[in-house]
Amino acid sequence: MPTHAELASKLLIDAAAFFITLGEQNPPLKDQMEENATVFKQMGALLTQEPQGALNDTPHGELAGKLLIDAATFFTTLAEQNEPIKEQMLENANVYKQIGELVIKDPLGVLD
Question: Are 4 and 110 in contact (CB under 8 A)?
Answer without folding.
Answer: yes
